[in-house]
């Protein structure tokens, strides 16, 4: 419903007319997107910090630095990835946050 006024702009055969209703919808969508980005970055920061305290991931990081575990990588921010997937430490509360976020998001977590 929130995106409907903007979706209507893109319909075939419709004249592109920017109205107040569409401007309001656009501004509201921007607020949702920005809030989502703040939540995502906060969650990502928590994961990054938890990775530093996880002995298993620390061993993987050491192996990556030694040229082993090529399926793992450490990005420029120091976050550990397995191929294209984020490594979430064995922290029940953190994993619960990730799952809650993934399932309550407006965006799907699966391709």
UniProtKB/TrEMBL annotation:
**Domain of life, per lineage:** Eukaryota
Gene Ontology MF, one: RNA-directed DNA polymerase activity
Q: Does the keyword Transferase apply?
A: yes
Q: Which keywords has UniProt assigned to this entry?
A: Nucleotidyltransferase, RNA-directed DNA polymerase, Transferase
State whether keyword Nucleotidyltransferase applies.
yes
Q: Tell me the protein's name.
A: Putative reverse transcriptase domain-containing protein
Q: Which organism is it from?
A: Tanacetum cinerariifolium
Question: What is the phylogenetic placement of the source species in the record?
Answer: Eukaryota, Viridiplantae, Streptophyta, Embryophyta, Tracheophyta
């Amino acid at each position: 419903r929130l995106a409907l006024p903007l979706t209507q702009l893109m319909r075939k055969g419709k004249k592109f007319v920017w109205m107040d209703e569409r401007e309001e919808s656009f501004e509201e969508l921007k607020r949702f997107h920005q809030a989502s980005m703040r939540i995502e970055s906060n969650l990502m920061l928590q994961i990054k910090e938890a990775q530093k305290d996880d002995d298993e991931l620390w061993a993987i990081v050491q192996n990556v630095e030694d040229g082993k575990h090529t399926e793992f990588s450490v990005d420029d921010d120091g976050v550990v990835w397995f191929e294209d997937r984020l490594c979430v430490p064995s922290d029940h509360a953190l994993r619960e946050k990730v799952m809650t976020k993934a399932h309550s998001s407006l965006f799907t977590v699966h391709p």
